[in-house]
């Protein structure tokens, strides 16, 4: 099982390495969102600093939607998904492999976005550990959710427009908890950062459970 | 906004929305039934006894 | 439009007859009961029940607001239940003769899920509209970032997405499974959204005063009975509409199959003419 997951994950990462869609398209888009927020808030440094935590997560959520779409675009071409199934891979292995690859790419996106916060919004980080743990939990949750919904809409003609509508409400708890945790880590709020991170972990565990149950029905005759 | 006005608009909106939905469902059922040759009020009588396998 | 259906289609349609007419004796009776109940409810809610000591007449919005969300929740739970049945019926290994029966049952449950979700969305919308009208009178704004409001609007958008997913053309079995998975994710996600939003508010401000209709204020007497009666009325109305919607979904499936048949026939004719 682990080997199959690794195979699928590696396949996705190799495709990304060759095409560099995440690096050349998604990362710049996310950074662009951060820049555009500055227009919306009239380039007010104190406002940007205060909202930095939330803006980070909104920007990364957009990145996650794009990443989920991309992750299944490469499968829709030429019936790739069927080929994987015919190759004897279990649906769960495909799902988790793709989720792992997407999570790694989102970590990359998140790292660039965090760097963007430091440079563009000139925030100061009080708790690096909180940023890293909350960030990793959040990216993993986005990745699993995105993979599930990507699998749900794969091959549909209006998947591009439907995916954000489906994904954004589901991602609301991640957005909320991640924002609170980042606000604490950036020193803009005196909340309980670690309990929000714990909530992120709970969400993550729930998504993993849902993923196990949904992999079969979603991918079996897709 | 006065209390009476809000109550009135709330009830009217709720009733209108529900009625619109009911109307849409019934009309759609009629249209589809007619298109399929079933008729809005059940199987066409003269052909109903032709073949009705027990299922 | 099909002027003269193919013989096999006609048979099929007739076999489906008992299911496919959207009005039957039972539903017509149910409809009469529903409309009468709505009439009585209007009397009770707008006339007989007293105005509230604090909220005055605006409390009457509660008799629409609260039953709506109860019915909506019921609809979403039914959607989840029916979706679980769909997945159970279409699980791998359900092949052979059993597979055919299982497939038919899965389609039935799929229709139940679709009809229930649509009603849920309708009644959630009613809750949001009546709630914001009430808020305008009581709070002075249509919208407050209250935990419950936020959760309800997310619920609404989630199931709008579910309906959008259902509408997409696809092979019926795959579509049923896909929407079933989404319905289950949505229902699992609900408590998470609810509690996270709850914590968001409670960690940041004093508990918002619970003046929401149907909040924790104790209501007694005529108001209580009116509320209960409204809930029964809404349930009957929802049931009535739901049965019709279920039947319309059945007709939609038949029509889809019919148009496919027609296309195939056309194609055959074209080929025959080409030779």
Please sum up the structure shown.
Chain A has 222 residues and is an all-alpha fold.
What do these coordinates show?
The complex is a heterotrimer of chains A (222), B (55) and C (275). Chain A has helices at 2-19, 21-40, 45-76, 80-86, 91-120, 128-153, 159-170, 172-185, 193-219. Chain A has 222 residues and is mostly helical. Chain A has one domain. The model of chain A has no long low-confidence stretch (mean pLDDT 88). With 55 residues, chain B is mainly α. Chain B has two helices and no strands. Chain B has helices at 3-35, 45-48. Chain B starts with a helix and ends in a 7-residue tail after the last helix. In chain B, 22% of the residues are buried. The longest helix of chain C is centred in the last third of the chain and has 54 residues, at 221-274. Chain C is built from eight helices and no strands. Chain C has one domain (27-210, 221-251). The relative contact order of chain C is 0.16. Mean pLDDT of chain C is 80; it is low at 1-10, 15-20 and 204-211. In chain C, 78% of the residues lie in helices and 0% in strands. Chain C is globular, with a radius of gyration of 23 Å. At the B-C interface, helix 1 of B face helix 1, helix 2, helix 4, helix 5 and helix 8 of C.
């Amino acid at each position: 099982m682990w080997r199959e997951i690794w195979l699928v994950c590696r396949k996705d990462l190799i495709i990304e390495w060759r095409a560099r869609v995440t690096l050349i398209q998604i990362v710049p888009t996310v950074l662009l969102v951060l820049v555009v927020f500055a227009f919306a808030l009239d380039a007010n440094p104190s406002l940007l600093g205060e909202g930095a935590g939330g803006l980070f997560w909104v920007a990364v959520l957009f990145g996650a939607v794009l990443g989920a779409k991309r992750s299944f675009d490469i499968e829709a071409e030429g019936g790739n998904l069927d080929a994987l199934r015919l190759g004897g891979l279990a649906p769960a292995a495909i799902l988790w492999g793709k989720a792992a690859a997407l999570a790694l790419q989102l970590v990359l996106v998140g790292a660039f976005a965090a760097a963007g916060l430091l440079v563009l919004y000139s925030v100061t980080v009080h708790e690096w550990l909180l940023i890293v743990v909350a960030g990793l939990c959040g990216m993993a949750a986005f990745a699993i959710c995105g993979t599930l919904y990507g699998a749900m809409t794969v091959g549909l003609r209006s998947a591009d427009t439907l995916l954000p509508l489906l994904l954004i409400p589901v991602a609301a708890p991640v957005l909320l908890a991640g924002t609170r945790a980042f606000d604490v880590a950036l020193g803009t709020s005196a909340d309980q950062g670690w309990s929000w991170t714990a909530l992120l972990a709970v969400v993550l565990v729930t998504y993993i459970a849902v993923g196990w149950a949904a992999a079969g029905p979603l991918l079996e005759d897709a | 906004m006065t209390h009476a006005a809000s109550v009135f608009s709330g009830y009217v909106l709720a009733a209108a929305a529900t009625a619109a939905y009911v109307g849409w469902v019934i009309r759609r059922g009629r249209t589809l039934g007619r298109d399929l040759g079933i008729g809005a009020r059940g199987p066409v009588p003269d052909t109903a006894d032709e073949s009705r396998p027990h299922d | 439009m099909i002027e003269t259906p193919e013989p096999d289609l006609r048979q099929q349609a007739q076999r489906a007859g008992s299911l496919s007419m959207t009005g039957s004796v039972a539903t017509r009776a149910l409809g009469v009961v529903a409309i009468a109940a709505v009439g009585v409810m209007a009397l009770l809610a707008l006339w007989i029940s007293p105005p509230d000591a604090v909220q005055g007449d605006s409390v009457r919005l509660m008799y629409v607001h609260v039953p709506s969300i109860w019915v909506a929740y019921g609809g979403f739970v039914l959607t989840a239940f029916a979706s679980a049945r769909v997945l159970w019926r279409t699980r791998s290994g359900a092949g052979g003769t059993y597979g055919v029966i299982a497939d038919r049952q899965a389609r039935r449950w799929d229709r139940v899920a679709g009809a229930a979700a649509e009603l849920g969305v309708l009644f959630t919308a009613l809750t949001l509209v009546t709630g914001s009208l009430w808020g305008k009178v009581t709070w002075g704004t249509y919208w407050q970032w209250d935990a419950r409001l936020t959760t309800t609007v997310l619920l609404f958008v989630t199931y709008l997405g579910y309906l959008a997913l259902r509408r997409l053309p696809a092979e019926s079995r795959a579509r049923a499974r896909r929407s079933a998975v989404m319905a289950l994710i949505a229902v699992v996600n609900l408590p998470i959204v609810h509690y996270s939003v709850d914590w968001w508010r409670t960690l940041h401000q004093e508990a918002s005063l619970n003046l929401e209709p149907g909040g924790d204020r104790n209501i007694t007497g005529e108001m209580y009975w009116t509320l209960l009666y409204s809930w029964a009325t809404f349930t009957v109305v929802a049931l009535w509409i739901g049965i019709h919607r279920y039947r319309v979904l059945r007709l939609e499936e038949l029509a889809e199959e019919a148009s496919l048949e027609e296309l195939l026939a056309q194609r055959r004719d074209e080929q025959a003419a080409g030779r």
